[in-house]
Amino acid sequence: MQTAYTVLILLMLVSVSRLVGRVIPLPLPLVQIAAGALLAWPTLGLHVALDPELFLFLFLPPLLFSDGWRMPKRELWRLRGPILTLAVGLVLFTVVGAGYFIHWLLPSIPLPVAFALAAVLSPTDAVAVSAISQNRLPTPLMHMLQGEALMNDASGLVTFKFALVAALTGVFSLTDASLTFVLVALGGLAIGVALSWLVGRLRAWMIARGWDDPATHVVFMLLLPFAAYVLAERLGASGILSAVAAGMMQSWLDLLPRQTSTRLLNRSVWSLLEFAFNGLIFLLLGLQLPDIIKAVTSHESMLWPTLFYRCLDVIAIFLVLLVLRFIWVQSIWRLSGLLRRLRGKSELTLVPTARSCWLLTVGGVRGAVTLAGVMSVPLLFAPGQAFPERDLLIFIAAGVILLSLVAACIALPLLLRGIEKSPDDKRRGEVRDAWRKTAEAAIHALEVEEAAEAPLDAAQAALAAELKARIMSEYRHQLEVFNDSAEAQALALQMDQLERKLRLKALRAQRLELYSLSRHHQIGDDVLREVLADLDMSEANLGTQK
């Protein structure tokens, strides 16, 4: 029962921290870390023992799957060059540069272990950056950070695993490691895509036979990242890349027919799951902080001097990571611009100014994946022998996460001062074209259906004509809304706002009347729930209109 109570307390804290985060002008991860540390204070004394393998298995697959699902694929492809240099090149650059620095700064950490720590410090968290910047980052920069976070989760953690194996076995060959890396990565991608495709075919087969219950399909989606991860790991491939590939593939397969209810439920469930898992990871980091500090200082006679010097080590490592990232971003960005000019291609969408380079540098916030990875470091190096400096590795990773969040909180608002995010005119144009063309297709389908339908009697024909005219008038109104004329758009928008206000008033009157009927026992609870669900859906649809 103690475990169940702990889980319930943590979930409640995740929700409360979201509310507190709206009042306190701090990023949500910092609020959650502070809440966890407060809960672990000796007077409260909540202690959670973490199994590293279980921690990695429970948290990473769904988060990576969700990242792959959410990432805009077209933008990922357009910015593939900068993203790959950040997600692969920068990871290797960081592993080598920061790894040697960590080993030089802390000789007690063996070089392979230092490389492993540098690798696990490489993945970034675009969700935290988005929360801090409040979506004010220029769109290309935000897409680059999202793509980097998606890809370097995989590259950083795969490199981390290779470094750990080298530390445990004492054997490392660059040629063998490079070949194995490629095979493991390609195998993970192939397994994730294949398994996701098979699940999509299974769902299509079920739908064709009328088995389209949304809850059943959503459960399949929830199990898919874990299945992709476990299957790839059992076959010797990368479970991390398998989960990412499964998510990316599933975003294409999510367009199955007769799945509107499933998609609505699926999005809600995954939003909840992602929020809860990200929150739990940062809460667990806060809960572990007292134990991490105690473990790091347990072998020293003096607590505060030791803790002070360890904090200086963390600051030094964070600054080196920041400098390495800035050097890489500045160099590669300038080089890519030069190559594009030599090939006669147009410049990049975003001009590589010093401010944009610093935004990309400070935007490399470490988060949930770094913590999940470092927590997966094995407890034992060999039978009866503890892993070298495991507590110090976790302390450094936790300190870098905190420093990167604090630095982003301070630096990003300053760097974004005076920058007004320009409207994405291209995306707005695509949205208008999509609505216009779909409305035209709907009107055409109704006109064709009128000519092809079976003969009706006079009453039925009149009723059908009236209904079609009503439906077609709604689609013609959409065409007016998305007319290119500014005057037409302004008039249509004004009409939409007035109509929305009237419809909301009518819906709320319906809801009050429904509550009155229920209070006077004129309808049962089942009728109340059914009608209320329809009214809520109608109001939700009105709320999404602009």
Describe the structure in your own words:
- The protein is mainly alpha-helical and 546 residues long.
- Helices cover 79% and strands 1% of the residues.
- The protein has a two-stranded antiparallel ribbon.
- The two termini are 48 Å apart.
- It contains 20 helices and two strands.
- Alpha-carbon Rg, integer: 27 Å
Profile the largest sheet: 2 strands, antiparallel
First-to-last CA distance: 48 Å
| H/E topology pattern | HHHHHHHHHHHHHHHEEHHHHH
Output the structural class: mainly alpha
* Strands in their spatial order, largest beta sheet: 1-2
Whole-number mean pLDDT: 78
Give the topology, please.
Blueprint: H1 2-23, H2 28-39, H3 52-70, H4 73-78, H5 80-105, H6 111-120, H7 126-133, H8 139-169, H9 174-208, H10 214-234, H11 239-253, H12 260-297, H13 303-342, H14 354-362, H15 368-375, E1 380-382, E2 385-386, H16 390-415, H17 425-452, H18 458-481, H19 486-519, H20 525-543
Helix pairs in contact: 1-2, 1-12, 2-12, 3-10, 3-11, 3-12, 3-15, 5-6, 5-8, 5-13, 6-8, 7-8, 7-16, 9-10, 9-11, 10-11, 10-12, 12-16, 13-14, 13-16, 14-16, 15-16, 17-18, 19-20
A few lines on this structure:
With 546 residues, the chain is an all-alpha fold. It is built from 20 helices and two strands.
Task: List the main descriptive attributes of the protein structure presented here.
two-stranded antiparallel sheet; 79% helix; 546 residues; globular; mainly alpha; 20 helices
